[in-house]
Write a sequence for this structure.
């Protein structure tokens, strides 16, 4: 298609050129057949794989993140990303492999597929620091989960395992259920969007009313941010929804006239938007687990602040509640704040409970960010570091004391200075720093790769082989650049007929 379009365009672009015929002939000779493009993609993907293997050999340590999803042909694809840390304390995140699960996706099946890959590629598992998963039973099951199977295998070292921070945050958000609000909103939206005629009529109605939006949104739990956007759009179009339902359905939802229900909707919209902001802050590439823990802790403090503000009837953080009270002609002091404080406390309690696996990591991360604070309790800190990274606490105590009194290092301590430490003098602390830098806090890269996978292997290319899918996915997600000069030299070009 590209070649045909280029030939057609060349007829106009080069019309006045004396060598037009030569240019068009050169374009026609370009190799763009399906089989040729497939081979080129395979060669480039192989080149990226070789670069990755070299970096794995050179790196100090690495961590993995795993997640599983199903493609358009119902094949389960296990996505594995690797985060490598090198001697200069730089890190690199890359797709390690895409494993194709043709039958069951139980913990033992995932482990068997991954173990075969490790044996086949001779992956140096002695460098493994941690594995992050989505927390599914197949991954974290106590006896038959993937993590349990890895810990039983002698080929795997002692490693940390974490439940994706973003998934845990999403699970905490589900504590804010308020089912009576969501059920009514979903019923109304589905009554409009489920029928093509009703949806067309509603769009026309919104266009005639000159609204900022021309349609309602749907909500699904699979998409992290959908509930906040769904509620925001629903509340923004509430006057139009009520008028449309009366004019076309001749029906009326009593809840839409209930002042308390409308206040509950406003509260749910406000708090869900705050949770969405946290979710967006946790997403992205090259996210250090230290930064993610800081974001979660900041949000927990924010929930405490919101509680105290609600007790004083201050609604600066609750714009939707404030606007709803204004519509109802009420003062903030008339708000039943205890009703909403209970909901916020429920969410905060779940945050405290779910992020226990990062509690031991927090004091170590605090020390690694700036080790020269006098308030660091050396003995307990060395114990925590020893538990995390399987080291001798006594040796760590000596290195921590030496580091905190090292005048030369203090003078250079600006930004990332761990790569400046002499490995002979601080071997254990350097290892702790590289291991901490290697940690994955979420499975964001896997989720992002699945979005690419849905585009690459779509209903229009559903017969794509698994090997070609992996090659295309590697090209789509990699930060490496193929060695085009070397690849071109290795190919014998043949003009297209």
């Amino acid at each position: 298609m590209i070649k045909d379009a280029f030939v057609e365009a060349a007829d106009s672009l080069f019309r006045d050129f004396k060598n037009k015929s030569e240019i068009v002939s050169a374009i026609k000779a370009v190799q763009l057949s399906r089989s040729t493009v497939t081979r080129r993609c395979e060669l480039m993907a192989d080149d990226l794989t070789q670069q990755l293997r070299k970096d794995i050999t050179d790196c100090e340590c690495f961590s993995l993140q795993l997640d599983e999803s199903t493609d358009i042909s119902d094949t389960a694809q296990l996505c594995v990303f690797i985060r490598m840390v090198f001697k200069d304390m730089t890190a690199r995140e890359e797709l390690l492999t895409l494993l194709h699960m043709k039958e069951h996706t139980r913990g033992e099946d995932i482990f068997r597929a991954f173990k075969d890959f490790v044996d086949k590629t001779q992956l140096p598992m002695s460098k493994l620091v941690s594995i992050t998963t989505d927390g599914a039973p197949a991954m974290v099951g106590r006896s038959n989960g993937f993590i349990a199977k890895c810990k039983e295998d002698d080929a795997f070292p002692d490693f940390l395992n974490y439940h994706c921070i973003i998934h845990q945050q999403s699970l905490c958000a589900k504590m804010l259920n308020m089912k009576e609000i969501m059920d009514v909103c979903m019923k109304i939206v589905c009554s409009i969007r489920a029928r093509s005629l009703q949806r067309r009529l509603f769009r026309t109605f919104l266009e005639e009313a000159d609204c900022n939006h021309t349609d309602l949104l749907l909500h699904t739990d699979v998409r992290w941010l959908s509930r906040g956007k769904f509620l925001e759009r629903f509340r923004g179009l509430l006057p139009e929804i009520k008028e449309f339902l009366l004019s076309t359905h001749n029906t009326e939802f009593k809840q839409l006239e209930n002042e308390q229900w409308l206040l509950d909707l406003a509260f749910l919209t406000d708090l869900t938007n705050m949770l969405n902001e946290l979710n967006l802050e946790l997403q992205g590439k090259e996210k250090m687990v230290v930064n993610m823990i800081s974001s979660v802790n900041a949000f927990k403090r924010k929930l405490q602040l919101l509680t105290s503000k609600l007790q004083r009837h201050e609604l600066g953080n609750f714009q939707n509640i404030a606007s709803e009270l204004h519509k109802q002609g009420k003062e903030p002091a008339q708000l039943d704040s205890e009703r909403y404080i209970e909901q916020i406390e429920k969410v905060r309690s779940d945050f405290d409970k779910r992020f226990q696996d990062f509690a031991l990591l927090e004091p170590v991360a605090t020390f690694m960010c700036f080790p020269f604070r006098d308030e660091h309790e050396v003995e307990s800190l060395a114990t925590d570091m020893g538990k995390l990274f399987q080291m001798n606490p006594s040796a760590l105590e000596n290195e921590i004391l030496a580091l905190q009194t090292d005048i030369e290092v203090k003078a250079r301590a600006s930004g990332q200075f761990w790569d400046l430490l002499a490995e002979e003098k601080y071997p254990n602390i350097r290892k702790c720093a590289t291991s901490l830098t290697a940690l994955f806090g979420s499975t964001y890269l896997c989720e992002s790769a699945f979005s690419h996978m849905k585009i690459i292997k779509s209903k229009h290319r559903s017969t794509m082989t698994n090997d070609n899918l992996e090659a295309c996915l590697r090209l789509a997600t990699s930060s490496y650049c193929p060695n085009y000069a070397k690849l071109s030299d290795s190919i014998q070009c043949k003009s297209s007929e």
Summary: The chain has four domains: 2-30, 35-163+443-489, 172-354, 361-438. The two ends are 16 Å apart (CA to CA). Residues 361-438 form one domain.
